[in-house]
């Protein structure tokens, strides 16, 4: 194989880098930003990013990895959920986000004790422990713990 053929062969083996790197922010509809912010802060220990006192742009919560979660008031009282037949049966109410946690058993217990709408903790073997819950506005989420971190 000559040098030119080697270069072409190497170029064919290179997988193009995806143009989308990561999810920077997520936006959640809520009915009342102040109440929702307080709930997320107290329930999950999230940090609220300081905003100008004149800001009417919702709230920003900071997750443990630094990612931002925006809470914005929805004018038509929607949730981030949607109905699908492609996940867990026909007409399944799908969650929009899966949160990764370090102590899923403790969080599940805490949410139940605080009266949160929470589904049972399920062990998906190699996929790890998971459960679903809804915030006070009805936004449904999945919670997951890496099985290698348990």
From TrEMBL:
CDD domains: VOC. Residues 19-146 form the VOC domain. InterPro entries: Glyas_Bleomycin-R_OHBP_Dase (IPR029068), Glyas_Fos-R_dOase_dom (IPR004360), VOC_core (IPR037523). Pfam families: Glyoxalase (PF00903). Gene3D superfamilies: 2,3-Dihydroxybiphenyl 1,2-Dioxygenase, domain 1. This is VOC family protein. It comes from Paenibacillus albiflavus.
